[in-house]
Each structure stands twice: as C-alpha cells, then as structure tokens.
Design brief:
It is built from seven helices and 24 strands. It is an alpha+beta fold.
Length: 531
Amino acid sequence: MTDLILPRRAFIGGTLAAAASTLLSARGWLPSHGAPAIITSDRLRPVMPSGVQTGDPLADRALLWSRSDRPAILHVDWSTSDRFTNVRSIRSAATDAARAFTTHLDVTGLPAGENIFYRARYESIESPGAFSEPVTGRFRTAPLTGDRPIRVAWSGDMVGQGWGIDESRGGIRMYDALTRAQPDVFIHSGDNVYADGPLEREVRLADGTMWRNVVTEAKSKVAETLDEYRGQYAYNLSDANAQRFGTQVPMIAQWDDHEVVNNWFHDLILESDARYTEKRVRVLAERAKQAMFEFLPIRGHATDTGRVYRSFSYGPLLEIFVVDMRSYRGPNSANRQTQSSGETALLGESQLAWLETSLKQSRAVWKVVASDMPIGLVVADGERNGERNFEAVANAHDGAPLGRELEIARLLRALQVAQVRNVVWVTADVHYAAAHHYAPERAAFTQFDPFWEFVAGPMHAGTFGPNALDGTFGPDARFVSAAPLPNRPPSDNLQFYGTLDIEPGTRALTAALWDVTGTRLWSTTLEPNAG
C-alpha cells in the first residue's frame, strides 16, 4: 500500500513550507501585495482545539470537520499537489454556539481516486482578518476504477473501562498505529466514546505502576446533558495522536451503546443507577446523537435526520455498507421469540430492507458490511424477570433462529437466493480480536452461503474475552487474541485493529488482524467467488 501514499517526509516538508508562508502572512509577519504588515493580537485569533477530521469520502467529495473556540468561518485551500499548486478555496458558514462551534464542510468537485492536500484555518467573526494557525492534512477520495489497491482499516471501543489519556504512556497509541498503517479509509465500528465511563485520575496497575489519566470536567462524571456528551468527544480529540490521525486518514463512523449508556435501548429506564439524575434513556440518546453528529465527520442524510446507516462505493472492487444496530432495536430480552415483531427488532424493517436491496444491487466485487455488533458471539445483558437477557444477535441457543436471529436469517437467505457473493462482515464491541467463519454445514439454519466475520478492538479500552459462540449460523473461530484476565489496560498492547486489502489484478481480499504495536497477528486471503 505504500505506493498509494506519498512518503511522509516529502508531504510534511512540502506542507510545512507552504503552511509557513500562510502562517507568517496571517500573523502579519509577511506583507500581502506590498501592503504594510499588520500584527494581530493572539487573543483575537480563533483556536482549533480538536484539530481537523475528514470523513464519509466519496469519489467527488469528502466531509471536512473542525471546531473553533468562538464564532468563526472555516477557510480551506485544497490541491492535488503537496506543493499546493492550482489551489482551490472554499469557506464554510459561520460557526455558532448552538452547534458547539463545530463545522462540517462538504468539499465537492474533487477528482476521484486522488490524494487531496488541504490547509484549514478559522477566521474570527468578531475580528475579521484574525486567523487561527493553519492545520494541513491529506486524504484520498474514493476511486471510480479498479486499477489501484485498496486498504480499509477498522476497529472500535475508545477510552473505556477507566483507561483515558495517559500522556506519559504515549496517549491514545492506536491512532498512531492506524496512521502508520496508511489505510485509504478507517471504519470506526462504534463506542466512539464511553459517555457512561467516568475517569479516575490514577489507576494502579498489576505491576505496581500507576496509570495517570488526564481528567476533564466532562470525563469526571457520566454524561447527561448535551454539553457533557459533547465533552466526551472533545476529550478524545484533545489527544495529539488523534489529531495527527485526523489529518491523514478519512473516517466512516457508526455508533453502538457507550455513546449513550451501556446496553441501551429506547425504552430503558435507569432506575437503579444512582449516577444518573435523568433516568430516561430515550432523552439521553437524543442528546448523545446530537453530540455525535456535531463532533464526528458524518454527512447528514438529506431527508432522514440522524440516520447512521449508509453506503460508500469504492469503485468496482469494493462497497462498504454501514449498519446501525442501536437506533431501531426493541428491548433486550431472552431473545427467544419465534416470530419477528417490534420486540425482536435489531436493524428494524426499513434498514433491513435497505441493506438487502443495496447488497443485491451492488456491482462491487467485495461487499463489506460494517456492523457495530457481532452476529455469532454471545453478548449477555444480565437477567430480568428470572431470564438471562442478551444484547446482540445471538441468544446462546444453538437451534433454529429465534428473536433477533430472525432478521439475520432473513437477510442471509435473501442473499443466497439472489446469489449475492463475496459479503464480508467487520465489527468490534467485544474488546478482543477474532476471525469467524460461518458455514451452513455446521449450522442449525442452513439457507445461506458461507461468509467471514472479522472482529477487532478495543482501540483504547479494557481488553476482555473471549465470548462463547452461538451455533445457529455455524460459526467457527479460526483465530482469537483475547486478554488472559479481564479489563487489561492499553499498556498491555492487547489493543487491536483489522485491515482489508484488495488487489486489483487478482481481485483477492486479504483480511489481517494487528495489535497496537503494528504487529500482524493473523491473516487470510479470500478469492472472489463469481458464483
């Protein structure tokens, strides 16, 4: 994949040289058009406390995100050259407090399959001509042709189980690992934040050393208000590795439960959790989703506000389908219902129909379903009314599909009937790495074609596992890397991400699982199946 990315030294050298001139001019140290230099006070200049992110890349556009500390307009110069020749410029509408001074700027008219280099800076509304220091970065647009390799990375689960930013231990190291992996795009598989996981300043480790968290006001308690949910994202984006990653790799984000509260569904009431004064999860979820859409580079749907499920074409070799197993689900239960209903919903009828139709219509060789929860792993949710409840698809019953498994069975059967080939699932959620192969000869439900599900995570949270597998769809664990003891810290290096590499000549897909040090733990190469 190195042939897709300019050498970092060349890029940094070129952009720093270009940025230096911009910065000096902005600070009044270089004259413009022969005019006398005007020195602007630093207190009048906007600040970009969270850096820049890009997301939801398409062939002709990408969403550029940033945040100011005051009302301001974002100015972006972009070029296909790291020397910033033939620069084009675009500017945003003014930021405001109602959106936490965040900006989502859809940069359009981009060439397909190209490296795009940009400079971004804010201009103060109150003090026109006062600019922030510029941030430079790059991303690659999605291709229209299949003549280049494609690399996708994915992982999830960020700053969970009490493990926050310890700067003496390198901060959030996974962002550095992902930057070095140089993917064309990164799929964040959910749990972007742990809004229900306050941080302590110090945590003693098993070896006697101390983990020392940076703790902000927002991370000192569970999130309930909109500003507290916003503070969860601002905390993660304060990490230097996260800001470098944001300028190098575009992201496709989805969500799961900890963006709101553990194992939530809309009708849940937090009766026994004394940490919450607002007990209605439906209310918390509305605030949490607003904060997520404000702080992540997600392109809003034209007519369905708050919709997370969507798809991204990467030319004839790849299409990515992002699903949402959180927004439309019924209550967690024993998951043993024999008929589909609102009680068994996980994707929900509209999303399930969209996914089935979209997969059938896709002309890409490989169809990657980015799921925020695994299919065959048993994820429990305590007991209610004397019955064991479940959070994900599986119900620890190896027989015919029941409960939420009915939706997955319907989808898999439809894909087999329509002869939709080369569907691969990627997910996170369970805080360890695994590769699962599903096959009808091992399954209670047999009306589907074999497929793979790859699991990676956490990014920066406690490592657990492994979970038990439910036999309904015949999964077989071909690889597992989990923690020897529960809730191992990020310093144990048991933090995982995955990659999917597609070669244009053979059209083969190589799936690999890696740890935070960049060590490849396991891989397999899949040949395309034309039917």
